[in-house]
Amino acid sequence: MLHLPFNHTITLILITVIVSLVAFSNRALMNRLIFWPPAMQRGQFDRFITHGFVHADGAHLLFNMITLFFFGSIIESFYRQYFYDLGFVLFYLGGLIFAILPSYLQHKNDTHWASLGASGAVSAVLFAYILFEPWKLIFVFFIPVPAIIFAVLYIAYSIWSGKRGNSNINHSAHLWGAAYGVITTIIIEPRLISHFIQKLLHIPY
User: Fold this and answer.
1) What is the rounded CA–CA span in Å between residue 70 and residue 138?
2) What pTM value is reported for the model?
């Protein structure tokens, strides 16, 4: 009989899927959880966290949760040794907050701007993983791409798309989430810098 490891990654995925699916058909719930700057002026600072548990549509939810599923458990095994076994949960929630902060500062007086989704925290998880295994293959739309190559393309695309500003995707959150994942993980374990460089210099192909 197959037993899935019921770890914090799986728990976060289940909570996110359930809340997102309910919010798809419950506009009142979606409006209460989404990141909307004017709500901060009413003291609803929980939205810094709650916006990461609702998504725009099924594809948005699926992409984020698949990425979290494949890379979350690996990073969780590193972070759980800190903060009384809650290291990964704190890292993930911190990613949600850190990734959205620059957007909040930019749009805090904009009543027409809102953001949602776990992409900031998921980017943090993915880029933390790349520190450990820069040459491992990541499958992007079923195409194998070395993790470090994907990272460079991902950052370049996010910067380019963010400057164009003609989509509903919060590319800023992707970039700041990635930065948070790298910086926080290095602060926790500075030896990862030399580990990353050594891995990078030994191309396995």
Assistant:
1) 10
2) 0.91
Q: How far apart are CA 87 and CA 128, in angstroms?
A: 14
DSSP helix/strand/coil, 104: helix
Give the SS3 label for residue 204.
coil
Buried b (16+ CB within 10 A) or exposed e, 91-129: bbbbbbbbbbbebbeebeeeeebbbbbbbbbbbbbbbbb
**Residue range 148-203, pLDDT digits in tens:** 999 999 899 888 887 776 566 788 899 999 999 999 999 999 999 999 999 999 88
Q: What is the DSSP letter of 32?
A: H
Does residue 105 contact residue 35 with C-beta atoms inside 8 Å? no
| Residue 26, token pair as written in the block | 């419950």
* Average pLDDT, rounded, for the chain: 91
Sequence letter at residue 46: D
Strand ranges (DSSP E) for the chain? Answer: 137-140, 143-146
